[in-house]
Design goal:
CATH topology of chain B: ABC transporter involved in vitamin B12 uptake, BtuC
Number of helices of chain A: 11
Shape of chain A: globular
Number of domains of chain B: 1
CATH superfamily of chain B: ABC transporter involved in vitamin B12 uptake, BtuC
Largest sheet of chain A: 2 strands, antiparallel
CATH class of chain B: Mainly Alpha
Structural class of chain B: mainly alpha
Distance between the termini of chain A: 40 Å
Strand order of the largest sheet of chain A: 1-2
Number of strands of chain A: 2
Shape of chain B: globular
Order of helices and strands of chain B: HHHHHHHHHHHHH
CATH architecture of chain B: Orthogonal Bundle
Helix content of chain B: over 70%
Oligomer: heterotrimer
Radius of gyration of chain A: 19 Å
Strand content of chain A: under 5%
Chain lengths: ~290, ~280, ~250
């Protein structure tokens, strides 16, 4: 049953990537900017998760607080980093974003130490047999439930609320949207809030899975999330979702089969480069 | 005297590295977030050869060639992808490089290559060599700038489609920039390997790529003298103030953000505005 | 059989669900000036971009002097004798107007980096650029940067740059927009004189009086489809043309 196990692990990992990639996709779709600083929000979520759980004993509180606070910080990041740079070429915003990301990682290291923090009593440690002899920890199950829940929520919002419809219109054609009365700024703040909150949630979940939060943990998932939005193509949320799951699974199998050639984290980029060579516009481009 | 030589050599290598990225990102406008990979390719090539008995100078050409070969491949990739995807693709290159090197035993695997032979002519000799390399590469980049190649690059960096419409063979020029730039990084890598005498997969990562990009940006994209100043300052700084070395990354991060936010033209732009001079070379 | 300078056959272009061009056909002879009119959104600029190679059609071919150039990259088309003055002006803002035009005169130097590396002087090209800029009435503005001159000047810069390429076929996308009446007249006169020097020209314009004045023949396109092609007065008298164009736009 190795294959099934690998598949499930891959999908769970993919779900986490999807949570991180969503925020990046939203920002890219709206602003055509690669929001590298997103990685710091992921890590921040993790820290809030651990600290609040350790302090208050309630993981649920920690999760909600993390999402809320990181969402707010995300909105602030739009205001401070990107809005002042809107008129310039995207390269400038990208570099600024990288700068903030690096500085944030360092701030985490300086404030909380390089070795990270752990849960005093890790929640959700029990295991559940979902299929014959395939066990998943409650934590992993939570990841799946939360990912499905949150992403479905966004999907529902996108179709059934004014905000969602306006957001899609803005991504498709900002000028049209603005002249139809859409408040583009509100859309942007909302997107940053949602995307960042999800990243924060992902950070909490990963800190739970590994029982560790450390300053650099945001880096690798975010680099992969960047690869994912390229693979998904042009700010397409559906594409990013599919690419996330695909990547999770490919990493899972890839580590077994080509792990002697490449280490796990570069599999994502090998995949990316291969896909781009074959389809330079990404996997799921709406033509 | 020894300490100053080390610092100067590091500065020279840093300047060469930054000038090489300046050709790709500064002149040609192609974002590369993976330039450290080419430093690494040059370093590993050179180190393997000197450990096999080659004299240092003989390794320069192979180091440059290996880096340029991979650079050519990345350049060809850059032709196919949109510019915003290029940034991520080049990021992928550096991760791939690290990921592959880590797993190959003949490249030292996780541990890397240690005990790289000291150059016969000692540290002063290495400094002279590094300075010579910087000088030659500088002449080369000035040449590009002042020739019709620089003219063509100005158009490509600003608006590729319009450049094509004006008859500029954008793909060829881009490839040339990648090859020239990565070869320069390869050369810097060869020098670097023999300066620090130990290299590993972690020496050439994303952060190192961002650092050199910082030098190009802070110097003023495309401006040769701005880049030299920025590279010299940013390489030398941590060594003079140990305390800064600990916070080096924090400073880089804030510097990058601050530069983009408040002075996107970099040092060169600032100086130009201060002194109302003509275009720097 | 006489070979046309330009032959566009059954060109179809789609963007997502949108049909921008539907089986468009167009032929242009040597030394011919063709007016190209149509309402906004008719696909005029799209067709120009297809001819220049910036857009790949889903089907159809483009031939220059009998040679199929449908798969040829833009750069090669420019060196084969095509040139475009763009509707949305794209001056290179980091250099003077003079250098903008001088670059286009570069010829071989722009094809090969090695060739370019060994060429330093721009004097010859700047001389040529200088006369071209005088021809379009920008003689006194040459040293200025694009940010320092009004839109009308930049429109004229587009024309000068395109001419600098010594094309056989010149595509001009609304070169008169933004010019004052006398300036537009002068530019229209200049364009009218081009076929005498061996160029064929396609002139996209909304300025109907000038188009009627200088173009012997007119091609009309609406909603991505060709509507009519023929002598100017016949075309303008056609009811479909008046409805498609004048009804919506004037």
């Amino acid at each position: 049953m190795l294959y099934l196990d690998l598949l499930i692990q891959g999908l769970i990992q993919g779900a986490i990537y999807a949570l991180v990639a969503l925020g990046l996709t939203l920002v890219y779709g709206l602003l055509r900017i690669l929001h590298v600083a997103h990685a710091a929000l992921f890590t921040l979520g993790g820290y809030i998760g651990v600290i609040v759980t350790n302090d208050s004993g309630s993981f649920l509180l920690a999760l909600m607080l993390a999402m809320l606070l990181v969402g707010l910080v995300g909105m602030a990041s739009y205001r401070v980093i990107y809005r002042p740079l809107l008129g310039r070429t995207p390269l400038i915003a990208l570099i600024a974003s990288i700068g903030v990301f690096i500085a944030s990682e360092e701030m985490f290291r300086i404030v909380f130490g390089a070795y990270g923090l752990s849960y005093l009593t890790p929640p959700l440690q029990g295991q559940f047999e979902i299929l014959p002899s395939i066990y998943l920890s409650y934590a992993r199950i939570l990841v799946v439930i939360l990912a499905i829940g949150l992403l479905s929520l966004v999907g529902w919002l996108a179709v059934n609320t004014r905000l969602g419809i306006a957001a899609r219109a803005t991504v498709g054609d900002p000028k049209m949207a603005a002249s139809s009365g859409v408040n583009v700024e509100t859309i942007r703040y909302a997107s940053f809030f949602i995307g960042s909150a999800f990243a924060g949630a992902a950070g909490v979940l990963v800190s739970l899975l590994n029982n560790l939060v450390e300053p650099t943990m945001g880096a690798v998932p975010s680099y992969k999330a960047l690869a994912i939005i390229v693979l998904g193509g042009l700010g397409s949320v559906r594409g990013a979702l599919l690419a996330s799951l695909a990547l999770g699974v490919i990493e899972s199998y890839g580590t077994i089969y080509i792990g002697h050639l490449l280490d796990r984290d570069s599999i994502a980029f090998a995949f990316l480069i291969i896909v781009l060579m074959l389809r330079p516009q990404g996997l799921l481009r709406r033509d | 005297m020894d300490y100053e030589i080390v610092v100067l050599t590091n500065m020279a290598i840093g300047i060469l590295f930054a000038l090489s990225l300046n050709v790709i990102t500064g002149f040609c406008g192609q974002v590369s977030l993976g330039h450290a990979a080419f430093l690494g390719i040059g370093a590993y090539t050179s180190a393997i050869l000197t450990k096999a008995g080659w004299p240092l100078v003989a390794t320069f050409l192979p180091a440059m060639a290996m880096a340029a070969l991979v650079g050519l491949v990345v350049g060809m990739a850059s032709l196919r992808v949109r510019h915003d995807f290029l940034a991520i693709t080049t990021m992928g290159v550096v991760f791939l490089f690290t990921g592959i090197v880590r797993k190959q035993d003949f490249l030292g695997g996780e541990i890397g290559i240690a005990g790289i032979p000291a150059p016969d002519f000692g540290r002063p000799g290495l400094l002279v060599m590094a300075l010579a390399c910087v000088l030659l590469y500088l002449i080369f980049t000035i040449r590009i700038r002042k020739s019709w190649a620089g003219f063509a690059y100005d158009s490509i960096a600003e608006d590729e489609d319009t450049a094509r419409l004006l008859g500029v063979n954008v793909p060829r020029f881009k490839l040339f920039a990648f090859v020239a730039g990565t070869a320069g990084a390869g050369l810097a890598g060869a020098l670097y390997a023999h300066q620090v005498r130990f290299i590993g997969p972690d020496s050439f990562g994303f952060v190192e790529s961002i650092s050199v990009l910082a030098m190009v940006i802070v110097g003023g994209i495309g401006s040769i003298w701005g880049v030299i100043l920025a590279a010299a300052a940013l390489s030398a700084l941590p060594q003079f103030f140990q305390i800064i070395d600990d916070f080096k990354l924090l400073v880089y991060g804030l510097l990058l953000f601050g530069a983009m936010r408040f002075a996107p033209d970099g040092v060169d732009g600032l100086l130009r505005r201060l002194f109302q001079r003509g275009t720097a070379p | 059989m006489k070979v046309s300078r330009l032959s566009v056959s059954d060109v179809t272009v789609s963007f997502g669900g949108l049909r921008a061009l539907e089986k468009v056909n167009l032929e242009l002879d040597d030394n011919q000036l063709l007016g190209f009119i149509g309402p906004n959104g008719a696909g005029k600029t799209t067709l120009m971009r297809v001819i220049m190679g910036l857009i790949r059609p889903q089907s159809g071919t483009v031939c220059l002097n009998g040679t199929d150039i449908t798969k040829l990259p833009t750069v090669q088309r420019v060196h084969a004798g095509l040139a475009l003055g763009q509707q949305i002006v794209k001056p290179l803002r980091q250099m003077s107007l003079l250098d903008n035009v001088a670059l286009a005169v570069g010829g071989q130097k722009l094809l090969s980096p090695l060739h370019a590396l060994f060429a330093r002087s721009r004097n010859v090209e700047r001389d040529t650029a200088s006369s071209l800029l005088e021809r379009v009435g920008l003689g006194t503005e040459m040293q200025k940067r694009p940010n320092e001159v009004p839109l009308g000047h930049l429109k004229r810069l587009e024309v000068a740059r395109a001419l600098a390429l010594r094309p056989e076929l010149l595509l001009l996308d609304e070169p008169l927009a933004g010019l004052s009446k006398p300036e537009a007249s002068a530019m229209a006169d200049l364009i009218a004189g081009l076929p005498r020097s061996g160029l064929s020209v396609i002139l996209i314009e909304h300025n109907l009086p000038e188009v009627m004045r200088v173009c012997p023949n007119i091609y009309v396109q609406a909603n991505g489809r060709g509507l009519a092609l023929g002598p100017a007065d016949e075309i303008m008298a056609m009811p479909e043309v008046r409805q498609a164009y004048l009804g919506k736009d004037v």
